[in-house]
Amino acid sequence: DAKTTQPTSMDCAEGRAANLPCNHSTISGNEYVYWYRQIHSQGPQYIIHGLKNNETNEMASLIITEDRKSSTLILPHATLRDTAVYYCIVRVATGTASKLTFGTGTRLQVTL
Amino acid sequence: EAGVTQSPTHLIKTRGQQATLRCSPISGHTSVYWYQQALGLGLQFLLWYDEGEERNRGNFPPRFSGRQFPNYSSELNVNALELEDSALYLCASSGEGAPYNEQFFGPGTRLTVL
User: Which single residue of A31, A56, A78, A104 has CA 20 to 30 Å from B80?
Assistant: First the structure.
């Protein structure tokens, strides 16, 4: 699985958009970008994934650059409950390499 | 729809004992993954079971083992417990309904080794 680089921590004011960047310059053509988050002491929660097109769901939007070497997770209106560690993971979607390789993630602190 | 469940929530053991952790996947999911999250070490992949067979294993000693039952639930066994085995053990499931292999995690079992 390709390695990812994320900032260690970020702050965001409640109600504002939180933009979390991720670099994955060695991503392969068949690898997807997945985002998970982990609220303190809970199991990680799947957020969104994408291959090359931008994606949006009820939780977030995922913007992937045209060269696929980086992406941004956008939480459009951050709330205090979005305070968590956010993990960007690059991996193939199927096959034997199905494990998730978690890096250190970005600790997002949403403040009043 | 019920999510991934794990039991027990907390488990306290002493060095040298054995621990058994259980996981029930989301209905319809055939793959179960185990991860360890030790303090300061992040989430580490332990084991992957699919259709009753071990498919992949992380860099852990053989005293970490498990199995998957015909109903796709799974057990993680840790033998000869050591102090550094103290961690949050997370189970995730994947399968039908998750075509891109999204994994859905349970709340975890916190194992404390004294």
Answer: A104
